[in-house]
Amino acid sequence: MGELSAAGAPGDFPVLGESETRVFQWVAQRGHLVRQEAAADLGISAQRLEQAVSVLRRLHLLRSMPTGASGELRLTAVPPDRAAASLLAPTEAELRCRLAEAERVRAEIALLAPLYDTGGGQRGRAPLDEIRELDTVIDVIDKLTESCRSEVLTCQPGGPRAPHLLSQAFDRDLAMIRRGVRMRTLYQHTSRRHQPTQEYVRRITEAGAEVRTLTALFGRMIAFDRSSVIIPHSDEYDGAVLIRDPSTVAYLCSVFDHSWTLGDPYAPGPRGDSAMDEIKQAIIRLLAEGMKDEMIARRLGMSLRTCRKHIAESMETLGASSRFQAGYLARARISA
The domain containing residue 323 runs over which residues? Predict the structure, then answer.
């Protein structure tokens, strides 16, 4: 009905009600507000009309525009996306500052981790173990999964995963969740169109897990109870590195937490959803950097064929006849 929300804090915005919606539609259809005519057409009092107009102006959905030689001011409707951008820009900027400050504090506190005596159980353990054989990697992950008691963080770049891997992961993950372990997983947006991944996410979230997606991820990792982290080995394709060093583990977990705050809840989306728009925008940015097709596909977690299809669409959008021209136009668009 246009009242402030219950929180009542200085940054709260008024709530759109039925009257505000009807008044906005009336102005949008007719070009500008004529108060008496609008009140009569909508069947509301002049007082209620003024209340609705006040709310719409506070939400930047109506603005005054001079018209005619007399310079008379008339209220006209503003496109909702433009109104939202204008209204929310200061709030979003403040949130980014708060998030940056939170990450700074987290990083400073993490520096104290080596000073904390974790007890005799941690003494004598190597801060880093290289594991070069796949069977051993699987065995280590199984043992860490069985001993995990509070939280597991998983970052899975590379787009859709193989169905047999998802099937194996589901049984293992479900056992953890039933023990009360909180599970959070990050995928790339491209996984939203992969039916086996959709099915896995549906089943695991029903059990209590949380899944979000981003256009690109920082790298593959699994963190157990914020005390151990598994990451890929740089030299061995099937190998891994087990990290126990408190400072390194805290840093990797803070990177995950930061990415998590930026992610979108997983939902199978149609081709025109916002996730696809983000993917196309990322392709334009990477084209502007002069990145090759193969590298773009790897970065965004999609097949080379799909990547080239999106590149062709982006070139058409940019009006480019070659990759070189597309990169030039993309840089021009970004710097504009």
Answer: 274-335
